[in-house]
Specification:
Length: about 575
């Protein structure tokens, strides 16, 4: 296949390490990949990244600004260090309340939650966010070019109240765009794209499952199924036992591929889909648990909803007028100089008085800050490397989480390239499609970007965002952009695109070598072990956050950020200096 490209390349970012240097094996758009100076054998050791600063004179030699502060009678404070020429604004030059390590969506939302809404989280203004790269947002990557707007990381979010509140607080209420709640979703099965039921009334009529499969699912949901085993179930085990083989093979398996890029035989039901898992636990069956949950919600006092929040209609997804990147950029703008870019954490220590000292390599030289608490929102393998000098047990636990590779491939076709049987009222309508592994399709799923949100493609063109790779196909890391595009195009011509259609326009092909943390069997126990190890090491006030803690969906990252902010605020209140 001859693929037309628009300035694209396979961009590989490996956020494995914390201090930035060019990678030998990775093509990176930014000025360097990160490298941890403690553990990576493939990078040189830089002695000045674990510098102890014994005197003000030595600090000046190392281009560090020292602020001499009068000692407090309550604690041993010897000083605070910040970058030359930096404007610390409202930051206390003596001591920070919290340092958020990582400027992805989780870290930014934690800082936003801590610094706003004083009634909920204490109104902590003495907070900074440090990010090793030159931009915020983590894996959120929006690209705009030649009339197209596409995503190369997450593509949308569920518009929960937490996400809507974060958007409104960031000044983005008028920038929100929501998909059509009636837009169908499809699964490719036995040579045809088949709609997934969106409401109970669709169940008797959709053709993705047989009558026998529907009956088996209904009986199982009401409790006519084998009892739970005495071990932690995988997603596959739970679904096959409760709802039958057809629900698993035709619905849940492709859904796991689309959300986690994972293997449902290895994913933990309790960790990956805890709300559904808990229904059986509390109600004896999925339906029993659903009724019980509804009853509990009715009996519980319902908090007043924030009147500022918009009210989405039905089950839909959201984004922003200029893509998801608007959210991290808006939060960063609100936080102002509390966000520190190109700050690579080189060392961290726990002081005798319970505070933390963090030393960074910055564009202005080495900078050291002190804080009452710290939260790591970087990927678990990055946190593992950074925390190893403080707690080997916590580092060992964090190193066990697996992140498979995923590529986001954006292709554009003329509208006339869409098969006529896939059109609704002459248009491609819908959220997108998922592909079970058993159907001979390599691509995990396809998002109908130009149908889902407005102004994503020029008139007459269709924009499709495709994900390929995952836990069952890690070999995509060795493919070129053209090879990835050819694989996706070949798959699409089996399902959505006419076989004789013109070659697509390749807008972008980005490989994420470590994309999505897998909530595998034992995930929650391993996470608990990491947290316990931090406590056992005396690291009170050191918290873990990010998508491997809260959940992989963007909405769960935001919800988890509010939860983490509440935990941090509680810690700061309970440990306030008298």
């Amino acid at each position: 296949m001859a693929v037309t490209t628009i300035g694209t390349e396979v961009l590989q970012y490996n956020p494995q390490f914390s201090c930035s240097f060019p990678s030998r094996n990775t093509n990176i758009r930014q000025k360097g990949a990160s490298a941890n100076l403690w553990s990576s054998p493939s990078f040189p050791r830089y002695s000045n990244c674990n510098v102890k600063i014994p005197t003000k004179a030595l600090a000046q030699v190392l281009r560090i600004r020292c602020f001499t502060v009068s000692p407090s009678p309550k604690r041993d404070v010897v000083g605070s260090i910040s970058a030359p020429g930096s404007d610390d604004g409202n930051l206390n030059p003596e001591l920070l309340d919290c340092v958020v390590v990582g400027g992805g969506i989780s870290g930014l939302c934690i800082a936003q939650a801590l610094t706003t809404n004083p009634d909920a989280h204490g109104g902590r203004s003495n907070v900074i966010v440090t990010e090793a790269r030159e931009h915020v947002g983590g894996n959120i990557t929006t690209v705009e070019k030649d009339g197209y707007l596409w995503e190369e990381g997450p593509n949308s979010f569920q518009p929960s109240d937490s996400v809507l509140k974060m958007a409104v607080d960031s000044g983005l209420k008028d920038e929100l765009v929501l998909g059509d709640p009636n837009a169908p979703r499809f699964v490719f099965w036995e040579g045809k794209l088949r709609p997934v039921p969106s409401k109970p009334g669709d169940l008797p009529f959709f053709d993705l499952m047989s009558i026998g499969g529907k009956l088996r699912a209904g009986l199982g949901a009401f409790g006519f199924r084998p009892p739970p085993p005495g071990h932690e179930e995988s997603v596959e085990e739970f679904v096959r036992r409760n709802l039958g083989d057809e629900v698993f093979e035709r619905l849940i398996e492709p859904f796991c591929s689309g959300v986690y890029a994972g293997d449902p035989a290895k994913l933990s039901m309790r960790a990956a889909f805890g709300k559904v898992w808990n229904l059986e636990k509390v109600g004896g069956s999925i339906i029993g648990g659903t009724f019980k949950t509804i009853q509990e919600k009715r009996n519980a006092p319902k908090p007043a909803r924030d009147p500022r929040l918009p009210k989405p209609k039905g089950q839909t997804v959201g984004s922003f007028r200029k893509g998801l990147i608007m959210l991290p950029n808006a939060i960063s703008a609100r936080l102002g100089n509390k966000v520190k870019l190109s700050w690579k954490l080189c060392s961290m220590s726990k002081l005798v008085n319970g505070e933390y000292r963090l030393t960074y390599e910055t564009p202005e030289g080495l900078v050291s800050v002190k804080s009452r608490c710290v939260i790591f929102t970087v990927p678990s393998h990055v946190a593992s490397s950074l925390l190893r000098p403080l707690s080997a047990a916590a580092a060992d636990a964090l190193s066990k989480f697996y992140y498979p590779p995923v590529a986001a491939v954006s292709l554009s076709y003329p509208k006339e390239a869409i098969r006529s049987e896939c059109l609704i009222d002459g248009e491609l309508k819908g959220f997108g499609q998922l592909h079970p592994r058993s159907q001979g399709v390599e691509t995990l799923g396809t998002i109908y970007s130009s149908s889902l949100f407005p102004n994503r493609a020029p008139s007459g063109m269709t924009l499709l965002l495709n994900y390929i790779g995952g836990a069952t196909n890690p070999g995509i890391v060795s493919k070129t952009a053209e090879e990835l595009a050819a694989s996706v195009d070949r798959d699409l011509r089996k399902m959505l695109i006419k076989e004789n259609a013109k070659d697509p326009l390749l807008l972008g092909a980005r490989i994420w070598p470590r994309a999505i943390p897998q909530f595998a069997i034992g995930h929650l126990d391993t996470l608990d072990a990491a947290k316990a190890a931090l406590q056992d090491s005396g690291l009170k006030g050191l918290f873990l956050g990010g998508n491997y803690v809260s959940g992989v969906a963007l909405g769960r990252c935001v919800e988890g950020a509010y939860e983490a902010a509440a935990e941090i605020a509680s810690f700061l209140s309970q440990n306030a200096y008298k």
